[in-house]
Amino acid sequence: MSTPPLSEASRTEHDAPLAPLTTLRVGGPARTLVRAATTDDLVAAVRAADAAGEDLLLVSGGSNLVISDAGFPGTVVQVATRGIEVEDAGDGRVRVRAAAGEPWDAFVAHAVQNGWSGIEALSGIPGCVGSTPIQNVGAYGQDVSQTVESVRVLDRETGEVQEMSAAECAFAYRDSLFKRTQKGSTGRYVVLAVTFLLEATDRSQPVGYAALAQGLGVEMGERVALADAREAVLAQRRQRGMVWDADDHDTWSCGSFFTNPIITAAQMDEVRAHVVERFGPTAPEPPEFPAGDGMVKTSAAWLIDKAGYGKGYAMPGPAALSTKHPLAITNRGSATAADVAALAREVRLGVEEAFGVRLVNEPVFVGHQL
Ligand SMILES: Cc1cc2nc3c(=O)[nH]c(=O)nc-3n(C[C@H](O)[C@H](O)[C@H](O)COP(=O)(O)OP(=O)(O)OC[C@H]3O[C@@H](n4cnc5c(N)ncnc54)[C@H](O)[C@@H]3O)c2cc1C
């Protein structure tokens, strides 16, 4: 199968550095890098790589990727598609479809400006629209499963483009069908566009996160002006180094490096016992939230901190925990992917030895493993 020519804004390079395409700024080169600026080019580039039996990696904002120092010995397709379409969905709602390569935070800002409510608590998250369904991106009491109506995908197994309903995406905490159907380094499904169903109002959705409610000076469940919700989220994220900034090494990360463990009530009892063993009768209470089906969710940041890996652990680096948040592994400027992985392993082992819980990484490892 011959590769169709790319449109003008798209391009192909060889032996192209990948670190600058990621927020962690680590990883070796791609043998071939195709920048796809239109959906047709994106589909064509993926089909061509698959037809040639090439290993394929999709990179959008690069904010959830830890690419190995050896780089990627196949084709990397950078998703750089643009476009937003809006229609009235009736019942005071709007249907907004965004191309996969639209920068996520600019999309949220656009929604807030236009009075579309439902994604305001996801302000300040780096990356692109098309990656948000992959791990069901979430923060401050919202996640995209609450507003995604459907996802347009290229199914690499059938070669067909299809629309998947939210139910078919099987969203769960930081998880979806997309994450569970890996094919090589990238998923079976390539997200081409995402359709959100948002409420047409200048009020936020009910505030669903205690620290955010506190920052806004309201009770949980209250609604505030959309712009106020966005600003409050951005302020809290900046304090925690969770808004990417080239000048701030605390943000050269993948955000949270580990997901919050979801464990059984019996395992939670064991965690509590370990905490008492470690800190004595006045031990602090580990955080605990109901997670359905008799399961509980505890806090990875809390476990890491209490296992002895506080903010700034391993400073000055080259890889260290953020000085603003113990859950972010950061590159202080000269870290390699191996440095990041070594620190992640140390933290994971330390938490397991202290509390008997094995943390699971949130970012995707490419070409190496944790
Ligand atoms: C400072 C900081 C803060 C963060 N805060 C949060 C947070 O609050 N909540 C949260 O959930 N996440 C957070 N993250 C993680 C990250 O921003 C999100 O997971 C984001 O959605 C990743 O988007 P991306 O475009 O950068 O994806 P990439 O890193 O480019 O890709 C991630 C994965 O998705 C695949 N992929 C990319 N594009 C597509 C596509 N079009 N179709 C199919 N697969 C694709 C890639 O191959 C890879 O496996 C944070 C990261 C940073 C650096």
Automatic annotation (TrEMBL):
One of its GO terms (biological process) is cell division. Its cofactor is FAD. One of its GO terms (cellular component) is cytosol. Signal peptide: none annotated. The active site is at R174, S256 (proton donor), E362. Keywords: Cell cycle, Cell division, Cell shape, Cell wall biogenesis/degradation, Cytoplasm, FAD, Flavoprotein, NADP, Oxidoreductase, Peptidoglycan synthesis. Pathway: Cell wall biogenesis; peptidoglycan biosynthesis. It is found in: Cytoplasm. It comes from the Bacteria. GO terms for molecular function: FAD binding; UDP-N-acetylmuramate dehydrogenase activity. It catalyses: UDP-N-acetyl-alpha-D-muramate + NADP(+) = UDP-N-acetyl-3-O-(1-carboxyvinyl)-alpha-D-glucosamine + NADPH + H(+). Its EC number is 1.3.1.98. It is an enzyme of class 1 (oxidoreductase). Residues 26-201 form the FAD-binding PCMH-type domain. Its main location: cytoplasm. Pfam families: FAD_binding_4, MurB_C. Cell wall formation. NCBIfam families: murB, PRK13903.1. Belongs to the MurB family. This is UDP-N-acetylenolpyruvoylglucosamine reductase. It comes from Kytococcus schroeteri. The lineage of its organism: Bacteria, Bacillati, Actinomycetota, Actinomycetes, Micrococcales.
